[in-house]
């Protein structure tokens, strides 16, 4: 099964498109990689970002679809670089032949080292910039700070996070709990339903866990796996990835 991913390129492979493709392979899917931005980053963090012009982003998609024997069975977006790219992808993913395909939106706003990854000279709220894409989304996967940015105010409790998730136009929202104090609990919010996915906090962090989680979910949705089961598998995959990366640092 094929998944079309639109995201930024991290040359180190720790995050972005290379991490997306790694996660898709682990989930049993294949990926098409559409670059939305180029970055300069490595083990010491992200240093610079340059968005790809939206026309070139769309040409990449056109080239992949033209003459292809197989259409993608799911779509995933990560870092977009610019509001123009967000708008262009929302329009393209909302039109034939991609309009009916599941879309996972990871609303990446900053790198783990603090570099802004969605540059808007007009300084519009992230919810306004990403709104049309979120309206198309089957699932959005913000972490706690991203959800706060989308809501426009600090979130001091799980109840406030659930309310903020329900205010987003995506059909479902997975609020990732790694940035919360205490036990890391992810919240899947769909209408009045809230499903909690509990995890175990590790000592140390690794880049690209959000990219990998969202891509693994997209890879499983492409194969017809239900949303909750896809999230459970993707969380286990990310936990194994964390254990492997953190284990190497200790060795």
Describe this structure in words.
With 251 residues, this protein is an alpha/beta fold. The protein has one domain (2-250): Ribokinase (UDP-N-acetylmuramoyl-L-alanine:D-glutamate ligase, 3-Layer(aba) Sandwich), CATH 3.40.1190. Helix content is 40%, strand content 21%. It is built from eight helices and nine strands. It has helices at 16-26, 54-65, 83-93, 126-136, 144-151, 158-167, 209-221, 227-250; strands at residues 2-9, 30-42, 45-51, 74-77, 103-105, 139-140, 173-175, 185-190, 193-198. It has a six-stranded mixed beta sheet with strand order 3-2-1-4-5-6, sandwiched between helices. A three-stranded antiparallel beta sheet has the order 7-8-9, covered by helices on one side. A hairpin with a 2-residue loop joins strand 2 (30-42) and strand 3 (45-51). Helix 1 crosses helix 7 and helix 3 (83-93) runs parallel beside helix 4 (126-136).
